[in-house]
Amino acid sequence: MRDGDSTAAVLAALAWQIEAGADEAIDIVPADRFAVAAEAPVPVGPVVATPSNGAIPSRPPRDDTERDDAPPQAARPRLADAGLVPMRTASPALADSPAHSLARAARSLDELREALMAFDGCPLKDTATNLVFADGNPESRVMIVGEAPGADEDRAGKPFVGVSGQLLDRMLAQIGLDRTSVYITNIIFWRPPGNRQPTTGEVAACLPFVERHIELANPDVLLLTGGASAKTLLARNEGIMRLRGRWFLYESTGMSRPISALPTFHPAFLLRQPAQKREAWRDLLALSEKLGELARP
Question: Which of 251, 295, 294 is nearest to 62 (CA)?
Answer without folding.
Answer: 251
